[in-house]
Specification:
alpha+beta; 4 helices
């Protein structure tokens, strides 16, 4: 059984397929697969030198969702607060509005 899981996992990784069983992984994958937009507030923070879009992509891949503050209905979207780090190891918190057909980065905080 362990060999089968290892073998299928390695084969899936080589094809770029990921298996998401846990809620954190499923939500992050759902956000990553949609067209991604930036609010004016988030764009202003991204114009600063301490953070980059690479940091946002890494957070959307490896971040941790704070479910106690997330899954809140905001109009037609759900708000998710995701904790991550920049490539310079600065802790960040991003707020993402997850609509049915798109995701919007609402804000970025240190």
């Amino acid at each position: 059984m362990i060999f089968l899981v290892y073998f299928l996992g390695a084969k899936a990784e080589s094809r770029g397929v990921t298996f998401c069983y846990l809620p954190n992984c499923r939500v992050l994958k759902d956000i990553r697969t949609k067209p991604f937009h930036y609010s004016e507030e988030a764009s202003a923070v991204l114009a600063e030198t301490w953070i980059d879009t690479v940091d946002i992509k890494n957070t959307l891949t490896h971040g941790d969702i704070d479910f106690s503050q997330s899954n809140v209905k905001v109009g037609a979207a759900k708000l998710y607060v995701i904790e991550g780090k920049t490539v310079k190891q600065i802790p960040i918190f991003i707020e993402v509005l997850n609509f049915e057909n798109k995701a919007v980065l609402k804000s970025i905080k240190k």
